[in-house]
Specification:
heterodimer; A: alpha/beta; Rossmann fold; 2 domains; 4-stranded antiparallel β-sheet; 12 helices; 12 strands; globular; B: mainly alpha; MetI-like fold; 76% helix
């Protein structure tokens, strides 16, 4: 557990991202706020399409612009605003500062270069002091492949992504993201595209690696069990903003935002009850998002004020914040 | 291969090189074998056309006023009285040896004509091909990286114009502007009067001049080459720019580019290596077709610049029903298409391991 008074490594302030489409602007991120402290393991949950990946890509400035446009906000990494950095400053942050594991390992690997070429370049350009020669790069590449428990790394270096299985590709992506020795690792649903046993192995491996190195991590996942096991603190996202954040134990013991409660209930349990009811309705249209609280059309406790005004964050416990008028007093 | 050759022992390098060379040779041999069947098919078509067309080839060869017994002798000599498949056999046996008979127009061995005219067009097409590939890819890359900004719009409008304007229009405009008004470049033929052409080795004037060490002739030949080659290249160049732009701007939104950026790989390495290689695959395929097409469609440009090429020769042969010459020209162009396709396949297989690996698996 990381002490609460540790200064933040990453601080996202009021991040707003729009996507230009035919017929207007999709207001996808509507003021995202989050903090990650050094060494902290943070979970980010929310249904598909709520803007988790967009937030992460905006942090690294790798959203395709256009159509995306960062309209407002700040992304402070060690106190410096990533969104206002010059290209050379940005390159110091990418990789060595923050690196990322993508959702789909097949799409995240360049199909026409060998693993050795791609991993080799990641190692070459993220090396901190001086230049590495080809021999040193090869040794480091072999070592990173061994760390993610890949067999026969020598042969892998000469293989193309198409020659590997999904699980192997995911491990290669993890090896590449960790080869830069980042201070913060963003893991966007690692292993989602793989079968459950492999996914479990991958998550365990990832967890061990970041704990070993004391790397901070933002873990995006749909599997609440994983969140509970791995993270210190959780952010819950709904339709482009953070609606609740709390230490993991608190959140699971006492979820407060109506959406979070629904999320907890929608976990299928083997003992009793069968499949849970879930949350009725679906994520709103970003072209014309609901006024006030974006969750109000689906909320069972909706009040008059929810339709008019966007709720601010209310403090409801130690490190427990929720953006809901139910807790305003 | 992932590691620079200097990292390997000499033995490693030798084995690796041998292995690569072996794979390349097998690939070419296999493709050449396929090509023989294509050529056989082509030869049947050519032979068929020459026999279906009305008119007695023997009569056409000797002229209308020759006595009948001359025609009869010639018919016997040309095996025209025998069954078609026997005729085809004789014709093919000759064609394989490069014997296409006498051209009605030039009154020379067709093979001699081809030897003279083909290299001229090949030189033109090679130069045009280099321009198409080089500038097309360059413009497409610039366009993709500045997508939807003014420079992209300029390139897009220009490449539209390039695609829709026939080569002969460019030829006339260039001739007027650079030849007559500015007088920068010559507009007629392959070499200025007063210069002697270098000894024929490849038939490409510029290359032969360089081989002979004659820089004056080289420079003069190059100047003669520029206007017709650029006129011929414009369409393909615009096409290549458009394809490169489309593929590249599509690939720019791929996750692997975002991942490479996220992992701190410098932008110049991403653009020049990780984006360029996958983006070239469609361009190379079209470039091959455009290059081969240039050889056969250069007719008007060759006419305008008075370029003694095979395209002009071929069209003249067709206008005068010079069957021997037509057969030879079509066969030569067929061979060029096949060779270009093999080269394109090799380059694409180099660029795209997915194609390479599946080809090797299917063996």
């Amino acid at each position: 557990m990381v002490r609460m008074d540790t200064p933040p490594l990453l601080e996202v302030r009021d991040l707003q991202v729009h996507f230009k489409v035919f017929g207007g602007h999709l207001k996808v991120l509507d003021g995202v706020n989050m903090i990650v402290r050094a060494g902290e393991k943070v979970g980010l949950v929310g249904e598909s399409g709520c803007g988790k990946t967009t937030t992460m890509k905006a942090i690294l400035r790798i959203l395709p612009q256009p159509p995306a446009k960062i309209v407002g906000g700040q992304v402070l990494f060690r106190g410096q605003d990533v969104l206002r950095m010059r290209p050379d400053e940005l390159r110091q942050i990418r990789g060595r500062g923050i690196s990322m594991i993508f959702q789909d390992p097949t799409a995240a690997l360049n199909p026409v270069f060998t693993i050795g070429q791609q991993l080799g370049d990641v190692i070459r350009y993220s090396h901190r002091n001086g230049r590495l020669d080809a021999r040193q790069i090869q040794l480091k590449a072999l070592q990173s492949l061994k760390e993610v428990a890949l067999a026969d790394p020598e042969r892998l270096l000469h293989s193309y992504p198409i020659q590997l299985s999904g699980g192997m590709r995911q491990r290669v992506c993890i090896a590449m993201a960790l080869a830069t020795q980042p201070e913060l690792l963003i893991a966007d649903e690692p292993g989602t595209s793989l079968d459950v046993t492999i996914q479990d192995q991958i998550l365990r491996l990832l967890h061990n690696l970041v704990v070993e190195r004391n790397t901070s991590i933002i873990l995006i996942t749909h599997t609440l069990g994983v969140v509970r096991e791995v993270t210190d603190r959780v952010y819950v996202m709904y339709a482009g903003s953070i609606v609740e954040s709390a230490p993991t134990k608190t959140l699971f013991a006492n979820p407060m935002f109506p959406y979070t409660r629904g999320l907890m209930q929608s976990v299928p349990r083997l003992s009793g009850g069968g499949v849970a009811e879930g949350i009725p309705g679906r994520i709103p249209n970003y072209l014309h998002p609901p006024s006030g609280c974006r969750f109000h059309p689906r909320c069972p406790h909706v009040m008059e004020i929810c339709r008019r005004e966007k709720p601010p964050m209310f403090t409801v416990g130690e490190e427990h914040y929720v953006a809901c008028y139910l807790y305003a007093c | 291969m992932a590691w620079s050759p200097s990292e390997m022992t000499l033995g490693d390098q030798a084995t690796l090189f041998k292995e690569l060379a072996m794979r390349l040779v097998t690939f070419i041999l296999r493709r050449a074998l396929h090509s023989i069947f294509v050529l056989l098919g082509l030869s049947v078509v050519i032979f068929g056309i020459s026999r279906i067309l009305p008119g007695d080839p023997a009569r056409m060869a000797v002229g209308a006023r020759a006595p009948q017994w001359v025609v009869d002798n010639l018919r016997a000599q040309m095996h025209l009285d025998e069954p078609l498949f026997v005729q085809y056999g004789y014709w093919l046996a000759d064609a394989v040896q490069g014997k296409f008979g006498i051209s009605l127009v030039t009154r020379r061995e067709v093979a001699e004509d081809i030897k003279e005219f083909f290299p001229a067009t090949l030189e033109l097409a090679l130069f045009a091909g280099i321009l198409m590939g080089g500038f097309g890819i360059l413009l497409g890359t610039i366009s993709a990286q500045h997508k939807d900004r003014w420079i992209d719009n300029v390139v897009r409008v220009l490449s539209y114009l390039g695609v829709v304007t026939p080569a002969f229009v460019f030829a006339i405009i260039f001739m007027l502007v650079f030849g007559y008004w500015l007088k920068w470049l010559p507009t007629i033929g392959r070499l200025s009067e007063g210069l002697t052409r270098p000894p024929v080795i490849t038939g490409l004037m510029t290359v032969d001049a360089l081989l002979a060490g004659d820089l004056v002739v080289f420079w003069d030949a190059l100047k003669h080459l520029i206007l017709p080659a650029v006129a011929l290249a414009m369409g393909g160049l615009a096409q290549e720019a458009r394809i490169t732009r489309a593929t590249m701007s599509d690939n720019l939104t791929k996750d692997y580019i975002a991942a490479e950026r996220a992992l701190g790989i410098p932008e110049r390495v991403i653009m020049g290596k990780y984006l360029l290689k996958p983006s070239l695959i469609p361009t190379v395929s079209i470039l091959g077709l455009d290059f081969a097409g240039t050889l056969s469609s250069a007719f008007l440009v060759e006419l305008i610049f008075n370029w003694p090429g095979i395209s002009r020769y071929g069209i003249n042969a067709m206008l005068r029903k010079d069957l021997n010459a037509i057969a030879a020209v079509i066969l030569v162009l067929g061979v060029v298409f096949i060779v270009v396709n093999i080269i394109v396949d090799i380059v694409v297989a180099y660029l795209d391991p997915r194609i390479r690996l599946s080809a090797e698996r299917s063996e």
